[in-house]
Amino acid sequence: MKNRKTFVTAVTTAIMLTMLAPQAMAETAQGAAVVATVDMKSAADSFLQQSAGEYGFKSDLSDLKHVSTTDTKAGSYVRYQQTVDGADLFYHQVTVTLDSAGTPLLITSDYVPNLTGSKSKGRLSANEAEGKALGHNKVKKTKELVSRVFGYTVENGVAVPVYKVTALDADTHSNWETFINADNGQIVKNKDLNQKASGTGQVFLPNPIASAGTKVGFADNNNADSAALTGQLKTVTLLGLDGSGYLKGDYVYAKQSSANSYSATYTYNYTRSSKHFENVMVYYHIDSLQRYIQSLGFTNINNRQILVNVNGTTADNSFYSPSNKQLTFGTGGVDDAEDAGIIAHEYGHSIQDNQVPGFGSTLQGGAMGEGFGDYLGAIWEDKLIAPSTYGNACVGEWDAMSYNSGGNPPCLRRLDNNKVMPGSWYGEVHEDGEIWSQGLYEMGKQLGVDTATKIILQSHFSLTSSSGFNAGAKAIKTADQLLNGGANAAVIDAIWAARGISTL
């Protein structure tokens, strides 16, 4: 197929005559000559017929349906739709560009010549196709009538009969375009047509204490603003917004019943005293974490829009719920969603549940889940404050000001307490998670954070819901074998041996 090839043509008198009305010249009563208006479609038709051999068009243009002719001061554009047995071959068109005198200059073509395969009308009805499309996208109520159009699409050079079903979800505002195979009912293509937008907002990177490199001068003071806290706000780009004006995009929907942030200009600049501020924090950090995971080569780990109930509980606690796949952040003490380490920790639970549904059904498995969450929170904080080392091996510095203000820095938990198995085993998942998190964090220090995180994420696929420390360490070593040919085996063995955990 050729696209956007420019032609320099010598238009002969004979060709020009085909572009003129049957009577090219007429005499007025006064005898002055008047040139008839050029028929742009006829000119375009002639040019396509001349170019049929080069593009594979049928000589009679019988499968090209005229769609429109657009005239401008500079020139005209004649558009055609390719068809199969009279029905549209979706998204395969041809345009001809002509100058104001009617001289053809350019053909732009998506035309597919010599189509083979089924040209049946299919066995599904339009109603059946609509039901399959709405079910696939979990659309319970549409905002307007659903469009169902029969036509064809191309798969490996074959014309496949399909229904193009377009529906606007009244609840999510997603505008789905779904192609249903009209023969077997399978989903051929599925896409949200809403245009993605980028916005801007203010956030902590990752929290005010870590970015300032000190806890001095910072206090929660019942969610009040201060010069010190406002001074730590950073302007960031918010990617993947769905265009609705809300903080809702490809990977996260940050929502509060009392403060569901909206901006027609996609500008979300709040200070931390505003309830909207936590919405921006959640959107930016979860969206960025998912993009980081995909940058490591994983497109199948929690690659979805997660609903987050921001400030959804007054408790000094946050949680992931496997039953509804949602996150909830609490407002007790420092609002949890003001600290990127806490956001990343909770997102870690969602990641593991996505990779291994039901993960953490044993005490060791639960400790691994808490340890992975702490690892994700710690390395995310480290990345955002590099090259500073303040707060390394510590997670949740700002959140911890309300319950561990004596620490320097204050920490939710640390990843360098040198806990080992079996002597440090306590029987509580958060305490014992520090055994697991230190092993992961040591991998990050010795192998590099990106390499370690890729190995760790890869290893999760090997686990079961009841896996414990030994299974986890063996899975990590196996993941390194798959990703790196076992190049890091000796380092991995030593790291986990130091924690009293065998990789064998």
UniProtKB/TrEMBL annotation:
Signal peptide interval: 1-26
PANTHER family on file: BACILLOLYSIN (PTHR33794)
The UniProt record lists the keyword Protease: yes
SUPFAM superfamilies per the UniProt record, alphabetical: Metalloproteases ('zincins'), catalytic domain (SSF55486)
TM annotation in the entry: none
Descriptive protein name: M36 family metallopeptidase
Stretches assigned to the FTP domain: 63-108
Keywords: Hydrolase, Metal-binding, Metalloprotease, Protease, Signal, Zinc
InterPro entries cross-referenced by the UniProt entry: FTP_domain, Peptidase_M36, Peptidase_M4/M1_CTD_sf, Zinc_Metalloprotease_M4
